[in-house]
Write a structure and sequence with these properties.
four-stranded antiparallel β-sheet; seven-stranded mixed β-sheet
């Protein structure tokens, strides 16, 4: 069974930094897209950052210049480096991985990790 293990969330003061990690296990292969979404209380889930197998990245306008997404293909791991955090970044962050299990394509979600930036 494919699983994603997220880590790195927590409480940080405004202006601080956190690094989220998300490692995929369980036989997933041919990973193409990996990324992060977030959901704040009372809000819909929104895309934060994605990275393709070719290394192309895309970031939401609200985090450009502050967040960086990267991946380690050998470890099936995606990272989100978050700098200069703001209270509005407070949310549960979910990673996802899109790839294949055998011949079946799938998208798997992490359990979510809470990032809290008090105002």
């Amino acid at each position: 069974q494919v699983q994603l293990m997220e880590s790195g969330g927590g409480l940080v003061q405004a202006g601080g930094s956190l690094r989220l990690s998300c490692a995929a296990s369980g036989g997933i292969s041919g990973i193409n897209s990996m990324g992060w979404y977030r959901q704040a209380p009372g809000s819909e889930r929104e895309l934060v950052a994605i990275t393709s197998s070719g290394g192309t990245t895309s970031l939401a306008d609200s985090v450009k210049g502050r967040f960086t997404i990267s991946r380690d293909n050998a470890k099936n791991t995606v990272y989100l480096q978050m700098n200069r955090l703001k209270p509005e970044d407070t949310a549960v962050y979910y990673c996802y991985v899109a790839g294949f299990l055998g011949v079946r394509s799938l998208r798997v979600w992490g359990q979510g990790t809470l990032v809290s930036v008090p105002s």
